């Protein structure tokens, strides 16, 4: 049975509570007795279990990173960052990006010039071949 929407979810939870209190589904995952003897829903049990050491470690890591950033700001070791589209660049990163872009653009321009020169040479070579074919032998 697909349960959709908040209203239907509440009906479903209410029905399962009634069944659990009546003893119809005792011992299922829907309701478990806690150490104090009171019934808790599966969601409440999952939320209680989710507070594990990993979350404590994650919180500690976040605090450590925040402290590190705070110290950098106090020492003046941070750089201003600018949002450009989906990316964010510091001035140093932007300059590096532009240098790479300029190098790539120059390389492409150079390759295009070389290709154009080769095409001109090939066209000139074909034109001279055709011209030499048209010259009568008696004229030479």
Would you give an account of this structure?
- By secondary structure, this protein is mainly α.
- The chain contains four helices and four strands; from the N terminus they run αββααββα.
- The protein has helices spanning 5-22, 42-50, 53-75, 91-134; strands spanning 31-33, 39-41, 81-84, 87-90.
- A two-stranded antiparallel sheet has the order 1-2.
- Strand 3 (81-84) and strand 4 form a beta hairpin.
- The longest helix has 44 residues, at 91-134.
- The chain is elongated.
- The N and C termini lie far apart (99 Å).
- 0% of the residues are buried.
Compile the SSE list and pairings.
Blueprint (H helix, E strand, L loop, with lengths): L4 H18 L8 E3 L5 E3 H9 L2 H23 L5 E4 L2 E4 H44 L6
Antiparallel strand pairs: 1-2, 3-4
Order of strands across the main sheet: 1-2
**Structural class, from helix and strand content?**
mainly alpha
User: Helix and strand succession?
Assistant: HEEHHEEH
Oligomer description: single chain
Largest sheet: 2 strands, antiparallel
Question: Shape, please?
Answer: elongated
Features:
mainly alpha, two-stranded antiparallel ribbon, 67% helix, 10% strand, elongated
Outline of the structure:
With 140 residues, the chain is mainly α.
């Amino acid at each position: 049975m697909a349960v959709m929407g908040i209203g239907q979810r509440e009906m479903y939870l209410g029905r399962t509570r009634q069944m659990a209190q009546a003893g119809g589904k005792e011992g299922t995952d829907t309701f478990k007795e806690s150490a104090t003897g009171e019934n808790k829903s599966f969601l409440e049990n999952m939320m209680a279990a989710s507070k594990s050491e990993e979350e404590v470690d994650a919180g500690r890591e976040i605090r450590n990173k925040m402290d590190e950033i705070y110290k950098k700001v106090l020492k003046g070791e941070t750089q201003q960052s600018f949002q450009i589209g989906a990316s964010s660049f510091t001035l140093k990163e932007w300059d590096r990006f532009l240098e790479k872009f300029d190098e790539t653009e120059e390389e492409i321009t150079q390759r295009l010039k070389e290709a154009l020169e080769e095409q001109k040479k090939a066209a000139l070579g074909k034109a001279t071949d055709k011209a030499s074919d048209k010259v009568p032998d008696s004229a030479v």
